[in-house]
């Protein structure tokens, strides 16, 4: 058997960071620790599968509460540092695929300029409400009922480079919302905006107590600024199966088949299904509930329960992996539910690498960039390596 795998699976636990990054102070994020604080809030995390893989071994000096250190972990383990300027999903995922975002995207802590808002109003024929940072669920409580009467657009942002539009599905039909978001996307690609994402945030419900955001969310990301590892794999004729918001994050580039999902559970079910079909290439899964439902909401116990649910599904799926599968479990940034504010946090992310082919795993050196994943995937499939990143493929076969 060669030191290559037929299939590589990357699963991104969106926002599940593993402690403040060395540059956290630059982001005013000192002390953040998504996994650590989540586990503490739970009185200990029950994640037997991640535990066996070596989750706590990633930081033996401060093990995750409830997650025992392993003498012989089943996976290779370490953590990764991000080199991208931002700490949003786009930065994290692009960097994994060899394309870090080194120039900061713009943020609008005081709202978007009048000029942009006026254009949105003219295009849509609707007035814009709020236009400031907000939590997406709080803003619905504040303005949702008003929107149901007036049809105004709820526009808000965050600490990330995002313009988000919340719209009740029965008041502003989805197709209309998507068209407005498309228009905003076109307007904000270049300076002075250079925005990472426009996000359509549809919701339903009869009143403030019952509003619920739906899975019809769409993220309109900037087009990747160069070829990613996925593009190179696609050019080489390989399969790239994208689950969850991966398709949105890469604007559909470098993907041969993709599925939007409605939840983490749905994403893991989808991934489990594709393990049953023959393909040659990469599966790339994003599980966004950790981030959207619990991290930004600062709900540590629900966050922890979601990690435990993920662990159960992961355990069941692992039985389907063969010697030809390499699994990489990681995250794209932090979003500490025990931290102040409602924004992402600048953290290291866990890296767990498993295959039934390994008899045991061990510690890998801390990775200086998420692009080490892209480099490893590229080396595995024999395509040109990205300009940055160091493959760890050979390290998995050292005796
Ligand atoms: O509060 P909600 O609407 O979930 O928004 C959050 O989702 C965005 C994307 O992760 C973040 O920038 C933050 O604004
Ligand atoms: Mn994310
Ligand atoms: Mn987020």
Strand content: 15-25%
Order of helices and strands: EHHEHHEHEEHEEEHEHEHEHHEEH
The backbone outline, from C-alpha atoms, is globular
Record field, number of beta strands: 13
The CATH topology of the largest domain turns out to be Alkaline Phosphatase, subunit A
Please tell me the total number of domains: 2
Secondary structure class reads: alpha/beta
User: How much is the radius of gyration in Å?
Assistant: 21 Å
Fold topology:
Elements: E1 7-13, H1 34-41, H2 48-53, E2 76-80, H3 89-96, H4 114-124, E3 128-133, H5 136-150, E4 153-157, E5 162-168, H6 174-187, E6 197-204, E7 212-213, E8 218-221, H7 229-235, E9 239-243, H8 246-249, E10 257-259, H9 264-274, E11 281-287, H10 289-295, H11 300-318, E12 325-330, E13 349-354, H12 371-381
Parallel strand pairs: 1-11, 1-12, 3-4, 5-6, 9-10, 9-11
Antiparallel strand pairs: 2-13, 4-5, 6-7, 6-8, 12-13
One manganese (II) ion binds at residues 15, 291, 296, 335, 344.
């Amino acid at each position: 058997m060669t030191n290559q795998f037929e299939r590589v699976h990357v699963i991104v636990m969106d926002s599940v960071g593993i402690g403040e990054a060395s540059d956290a102070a630059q982001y005013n994020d000192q002390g953040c620790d998504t996994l650590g604080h989540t586990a503490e809030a739970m009185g200990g995390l029950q994640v037997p599968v991640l535990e066996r893989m070596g989750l706590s071994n990633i930081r033996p000096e401060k093990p995750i509460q409830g997650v025992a250190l392993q003498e012989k972990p089943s996976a290779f383990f370490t953590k990764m540092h991000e080199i991208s300027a931002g700490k949003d999903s786009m930065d994290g995922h692009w960097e994994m695929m060899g394309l870090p975002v080194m120039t900061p995207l713009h943020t609008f802590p005081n709202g978007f300029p009048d000029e942009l808002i006026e254009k949105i109003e003219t295009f849509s024929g609707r007035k814009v409400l709020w236009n400031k940072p907000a939590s997406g669920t709080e803003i619905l409580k504040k303005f949702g009922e008003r929107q149901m009467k007036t049809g105004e657009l709820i526009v808000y942002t965050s600490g990330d480079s995002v313009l988000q539009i919340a719209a009740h599905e029965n008041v502003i039909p989805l197709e209309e919302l998507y068209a407005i978001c498309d228009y905003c996307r076109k307007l904000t690609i270049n300076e002075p905006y250079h925005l990472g994402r426009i996000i359509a945030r549809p919701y339903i419900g009869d009143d403030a107590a019952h509003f619920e955001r739906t899975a019809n969310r769409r993220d309109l990301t900037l087009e990747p600024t160069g070829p990613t590892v996925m593009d190179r794999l696609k050019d080489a004729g390989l399969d790239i199966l994208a689950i969850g918001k991966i398709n949105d994050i890469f604007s559909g580039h470098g993907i041969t088949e993709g599925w939007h999902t409605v939840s983490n559970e749905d994403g893991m079910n989808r991934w489990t299904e594709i393990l049953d079909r023959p393909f040659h290439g990469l599966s790339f899964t994003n599980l966004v509930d950790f981030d959207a439902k619990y991290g930004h909401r600062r709900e540590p116990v629900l966050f922890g329960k979601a990690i435990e649910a993920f662990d159960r599904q992961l355990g069941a799926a692992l039985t389907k992996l063969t010697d030809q599968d390499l699994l990489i479990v990681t995250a794209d940034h932090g979003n500490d539910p025990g931290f102040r504010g409602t924004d992402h946090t600048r953290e290291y992310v866990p890296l767990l690498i498993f295959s039934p082919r390994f008899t045991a795993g061990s510690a890998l050196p801390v990775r200086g960039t998420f692009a080490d994943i892209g480099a490893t995937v590229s080396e595995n499939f024999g395509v040109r390596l990205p300009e940055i990143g160091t493959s760890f493929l050979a390290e998995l076969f050292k005796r």
